[in-house]
Amino acid sequence: MSGISRRKMMAAGAAAVAGAGGLAVAARLAKRYGLVPPDDGGIFGPGETMTYAVQRILTMHGPVRQFPRSMISKEPFANETPALGKAFQQMEAGGFKDWRLTVNGMVARPTAFSLADLKSLPVQSQITEVACEEGWSYIAEWIGTPLYEVLKATGASPKVRYIVYFSIQHWMWESIDMGDALHPQTLLTWGMNDGDLPVGFGGPLRLRVPRQLGYKSVKFLTAITAVDSLKHVRDGRGSVDPSGGYSWYAGI
Amino acid sequence: MPATTAARDTKTPRHAAIVRVTHWITVVAFFALLISGGGIVISHPRFYLGEVGNVNTKPLFTLPIPASRDTVPTGYHFVMPDDNGWGRYLHFEAAWVLVLTGLVYGIWSLWTRHFWRNLIPERGDRGWRAYSREIAKYLHRAPSQVGDARSYNVLQRTAYLVVIFVLFPLVIWTGLAMSPSFTSVFPMSVVLLGGRQTARTLHFFVSWALVLFLVVHVTMVALAGFWSRVRAMITGRNATDAGAHAEEDA
Predict the structure, then answer these.
(1) Mean pLDDT, chain B, as a whole number?
(2) Can you tell me the distance from the alpha carbon of B125 to that of B170, in angstroms, rounded to the nearest whole number?
(3) Which of A21, A204, B13, B120 is most buried (CB neighbours < 10 A)?
(4) In this structure, which CATH number among 3.40.50.920, 3.40.225.10, 3.90.420.10, 3.40.50.720 belongs to the domain A65-244?
């Protein structure tokens, strides 16, 4: 073996060791700073972790684009509304007066909010785009109560790291990290385009998470739980998505 | 060719180790992106211009294929298998492999002046005359000359530079312009393109441009002698280095 190739081999070896060490340190730092998504296992885990970690470092505070009123979609598109059951129909007949959003977990004052209760908190409206993972999108005005107002009102602990949320459809559940939960545009939405939020678009209550794709914006919202870890919530993978083959983080 | 140059040439690999390794990793990542991208597209095979687009708005064009979701009117009474879930996982993982590999290649190429030495057209070749000369050679199927297997001609150099500095950056940019989180911090990334749906449509076309390059590239490799060129990209050695001058002509 010539001197040059031996030197090259040693350099390559040193680079490999440095690379492996660097990866180990990066993995440890990512874990410490909450940059590892709950679906980090399996063959797609490394890519998912890279995407989530890098996006979080880059995008902690970015507000999504808002659009002029003239750009509101005339005919917004919604997927077909599923059969929501008798309890839902009864509440719908009663104008959703009996609809409740229960907030529990690591909060000082667990509360069940009616829609009127939510409307008595500070209210916000935004003209933003919904983008579906399929590729289509539309713009609407969304009116609601920022999620952080509800977390403030219920006295969420500073130790909370994820907000888990549930639909009246029992299989449907999701979670977001505090970067999105405390984001000023993450909205408990009860109004759309100057009217009540239609059932077809998730009414009477939908959590709009505008920095992620549409499937994180759960319709028919009934419950919120503040947790410091997702390990013990249902299957531990943070949402219904990974079991259906979808990634938990949908910011891309 | 002076003897000394020839002797040195056979010792220096045709393609540096970094070029070979990053080339084949890129091949794998590109096919993963292509397949998963196709899987994602069929869930909504309609394309639009501007910011928004959905089945209630007029498309720029529609692919004449069935969709993998029954919410899209395609005219077919058939819904294709839905591969969006793992397709998206694979797409973004492969995108990371491609981007990181590209970074290694790019930094190495700047460091070693690979772009200047091997890819930027040589001084005498920077003009339309050089291009027309090379095009004429291809059209006449002119036999290749000694040295053709050791260096790129001006058309090859241009094609590779376009792929490296135009198409790959564009496909990454148009992809990121569809990320609601990325565009919340870098809104110009989508505004400059003319909106989210325009970005998606451009992403689709740039992908096809890359596929077109792939087809031409593989065709040219096949015409030049498939196994000898592939071997050079795997082992770094030309068949001619071992003295098999017969293959030089291929």
Answers:
(1) 89
(2) 26
(3) A204
(4) 3.90.420.10
Confidence check: pLDDT of B249 > 60: no
Q: How many CB atoms sit inside 10 A of residue B95's CB?
A: 23
Q: What is the ipTM of this complex?
A: 0.90
Percent of chain B with pLDDT over 90: 69
* Separation in Å, CA of B160 to nearest CA in chain A: 27
Of B54, B196, B200, the CB nearest to A77: B54
Tokens of B194: 């003319």
The domain spans of chain A are: 65-244
Opening angle at CA A217, ends A212 and A218, nearest 5: 150
Structure tokens given for B126: 């920077």
Query: Is A55 exposed, middle or buried (CB count within 10 Å of its CB: 0-12, 13-18, 19+)?
Result: buried
Best interface-test mutation with B: which of A136, A183, A185, A216 has the largest number of B CBs within 10 A? Answer: A136
Percent of chain B predicted with pLDDT > 70:
90
pLDDT for the residue A4: 59
How confident is the model at residue B150, as a pLDDT? 80
Report the residue from A48, A131, A135 with minimal CB separation from B89: A48
Question: CB neighbours of B174 closer than 8 A, spacing ≥ 6?
Answer: B193, B199, B200, B202, B203, B206
B86–A44: do the CB atoms touch at under 8 Å?
Answer: yes
The arithmetic mean of pLDDT across residues A142-147, rounded, is 98
A76 part of contact set with chain B, CB < 8 Å: yes
Written as six digits, the tokens of B98 are 């491609």
Q: Tell me if B97 sits within 8 A of B30, measured CB to CB.
A: no
Q: Model pTM? A: 0.90
Instruction: Round to whole Å and give the CA distance between A243 and A144.
Output: 30
How high is the pLDDT of residue B82?
Answer: 87
With an 8 Å Cβ cutoff, are B55 and A76 in contact?
no
- B54/A73 CB distance under 8 A: yes
Contact A210 B180 (CB under 8 A): yes
